[in-house]
Amino acid sequence: DSGVTQTPKHLITATGQRVTLRCSPRSGDLSVYWYQQSLDQGLQFLIQYYNGEERAKGNILERFSAQQFPDLHSELNLSSLELGDSALYFCASSVVGEAKNIQYFGAGTRLSVL
Amino acid sequence: GQQLNQSPQSMFIQEGEDVSMNCTSSSIFNTWLWYKQDPGEGPVLLIALYKAGELTSNGRLTAQFGITRKDSFLNISASIPSDVGIYFCAGPNFGNEKLTFGTGTRLTIIP
C-alpha cells in the first residue's frame, strides 16, 4: 500500500459528460501529480500541485482541470468527455523540497467513456 | 522535451532466467527511478538511483546509473512468476519535479 488513495476505482460515463476524480496523498506529502495512461502506453504527466498551488503543467487538455484543497487532497475534473479520454488516471504524491524526488502512486481510476 | 526509450519493449522468458533491460535518454538525468506496474494497478517504486555509476540492489533486482548519466540498467536474477508486469524507468525533468516515464518493458514468463 503506497498510502495514496484514489477514488473511484472505476468510472463509466457517456460522451459529453463531466467527472471528478479524487486523490488523497500520503500523510505529510505536499505535492500531488496527475498522470494519464492510455491503453498499453506509458504514463503522461498532466499537472502538479504543491500545497494548494499549481506548480507544473504537462500536456493537459483545456477540458481538464485540477485543484488541491487545504487538506491537501486533490481533484481532477474532466469535462465534455470524448471516447479518447478513456484511460487510467493516476495520482502520485511526494515531499517536494527533497533532492530525492520519490513519487508514490495510487492504484488509479479507470475511466471508460462510452 | 526529454524522452526515455526502453529496450526491449517486451520479453518472454522462462522462470529462473535472468533478465536485463535498459533505459536511454537524449539528455542528462540526475535521478533514475525504476517502477513496476502490475495490470490495473499503479506503478510501484523498485529502485532509486542518485549518482552516476551507482549500483543499487533490492533483493533479486539490481539497477545501475550509467556513467554518462543518459542511461540506466535494470537486472532481475532468477525470475519468478510474480516478476511479470511492465517495468518503467523514470526521471524528474531538470529544474522541476514532474517525472518523464520511459516507454516500458513488458515481462512475460512462459510456463
What are the defining features of this structure?
heterodimer; A: mainly beta; seven-stranded mixed β-sheet; four-stranded antiparallel β-sheet; 11 strands; 50% strand; globular; B: 111 residues; mainly beta; six-stranded mixed β-sheet; 54% strand
What would you say this structure looks like, in words?
The complex is a heterodimer of chains A (about 110) and B (about 110). Chain A is mainly beta. Helices cover about 0% and strands about 50% of the residues of chain A. Chain A contains no helices and eleven strands. In chain A, the strands form two sheets. In chain A, strands 2, 4, 5, 6, 9, 10 and 11 form a seven-stranded mixed sheet that branches. In chain A, strands 1-3-8-7 form a four-stranded antiparallel sheet, with no helix packed on it. The N and C termini of chain A lie far apart (about 30 Å). The model of chain A has no long low-confidence stretch (mean pLDDT about 90). By secondary structure, chain B is mainly beta. Helix content of chain B is about 0%, strand content about 55%. Chain B contains no helices and eleven strands. In chain B, strands 2, 4, 5, 9, 10 and 11 form a six-stranded mixed sheet that branches. A five-stranded antiparallel sheet of chain B has the order 1-3-8-7-6, with no helix packed on it. In chain B, strand 7 (about 60-65) and strand 8 (about 70-75) form a beta hairpin. The relative contact order of chain B is 0.33. The model of chain B has no long low-confidence stretch (mean pLDDT about 90). Chains A and B meet through strand 4, strand 5, strand 9 and strand 10 of A and strand 5 and strand 10 of B.
